[in-house]
Amino acid sequence: MVVLLDGATKRVVAGCEDGLYSLRGAVRVEVGGALAAGRGAGVGGVLAAGGRALLARGGALLHAGLLALGSALRRAPDLRAALPATLVPLPDSSPPHLLKGINSDSLDGPCAAVACGRRVFLLRYEAASSEFKIARSLTVDRPANSLLLTTKTLYIAGEKPLKLNLPSGALEAFGMEEPTIAAAAKKHSPPKAFLLIKEKPTEILLCYAECGVFVDENGKRTRNEDPKWSTAVYSWEFVNPFLYVIGDDKVTIVYLNDDAYRTPPCTCDTASLASTASECYLPEIFTLKLKEPVLLGTAPHGIIIRTKSESGYNVSIIEGMTAFRSVGASVESLATISDTRGSTTDLAQSPTDGTPQDISQESVEVTTGFLADIRKRARQLRNKHRKEQTPDDVIKEILTTEVDLKRTTNGRKSPATISEFDSDTESDDSEEKSESPKGPADLCAEMFTRQVRFQS
């Protein structure tokens, strides 16, 4: 079953084994005036693309008007809602198992990608003939696990990640210069999902069975650390700014801001509390214990899932912001989450794991907005400490880099007091000068003396 919460229709539509349904009841799908029933009526996928609705039904691909779909979804059960649809001819006997689309009426290039077995078709909608035409036909090394379509590029999760530049580029391997991606391909571990994190600049999360890799449009790493999870995870979805990781008995929500999984900038200030290169900013994580969750689709602010209960199945919407607010994390606190530093957390070993609970109950990590506010205050104090430098401190720092530094016995650096041009000075004076650090005026005088002697 697939659920779509479409922005154009503002309605929920569910594709089931016996047909198409709205929250009001069944919606009949008519192709050429004929009504399909029985096993051939099952709908396995629904999406909006090019201002139209695409449906994978009974091993075939259909398209219908979005306005007609919205009207059918609003009809009462007694009115026997019907949706007139048209067949999209595809030169492949394999049923479509993946659909991805771009819902834009003004898009000139391909607006939908359809995977049928090892074949992937790029479709373009022609308003003049009211038909979908095949723009490109591709053959990959295995049935695709995931598709990601943008206005400029198509990404395919085959045996290894693949990339196709639109409209006429060649199909090529993607991200193989990244060691993690290359190692996965060598071990025949195919990518499971492509997730678009940001459009400008492009950032993609490439999901594997046990970890993910953040890369740009050229396959180069964008974040220092990789998110990790257990092999029990089988679905991923991103609805800005939250990553949803769906496993056998839980849904993990990860707050992804610009700092998550990145190494903080290094500073040379010994008094600074900045982390070393071995540390990274950890994201905030919320874990919801559920029974056999299944990802059905996305909503404007979250995901739609199906869970098992004693009486059958339930369909629910999970929103990341609502989940974090339930434990006291404010929007401002979530913006400061990047102050959390440490080694990468394995989602499979999250301390939030507890006894299974009903969908109305939540199992969360003990990290609240109060702690996030403390981290924010600590960062403000560190920044204030770095900025509070007197003019003498600035001059001394500049001059210290000009004059040679020599390390004293206690391991700290102090300005050198004897240069190669001062060999005629008394040793006693040199010892006294080396014991007491010079001020900015003394350093200026010494530099001037050295320059005059060098020029003479």
Automatic annotation (TrEMBL):
Residues 341-361, 408-443 are annotated as: Disordered. Residues 110-258 form the CNH domain. Residues 421-432 have a biased composition (Acidic residues). This is CNH domain-containing protein.
